[in-house]
Design goal:
76 residues; mainly alpha; 3 helices; 47% helix; elongated
Amino acid sequence: MELILKSNNEQSIAKIIALAKKLNVVVEKKDADSNSNDKAAIKERILNFKASKPSPFGDAVAWQNEQREDRDLPFS
């Protein structure tokens, strides 16, 4: 089993590592820089997303225009 802990608080991490050593748990520390690369890759995938087919919900702009059309309001 693998457990990933992320924290910016060095004191908390030190306490967790000390407890893990008492419990004979193997502790591996990885660089946080690889995490920032993962975030950048995810951001690029989101920004470059192109749908393969039209939305099943229809055209969002047409729906919005229909909702905003001029009409009598019930409280006027």
